[in-house]
Amino acid sequence: MSTTVKIIELVGESDKGWEDAVKNAVWEASKTIDNITGVEVLNMTADVKDGKVFDYKVNIQVAFPVHENR
């Protein structure tokens, strides 16, 4: 039996850092997606005001198995 995996792209945000933005995106996605098995960070950006970073953003892809009996 082979496994098929679906990959979707998400954007996460945080005012603490890029790692926190990834965690936020995965946490929110896990509320509606079962069995997330991996994440890939595609891009990291941030907003800057008055010389300070105040909003971190990440584009990520999350992978999860496709269930055969649905």
UniProtKB/TrEMBL annotation:
Pfam families: Dodecin. It comes from Halothermothrix orenii (strain H 168 / OCM 544 / DSM 9562). This is Uncharacterized conserved protein. InterPro entries: Dodecin, Dodecin-like, Dodecin-like_sf.
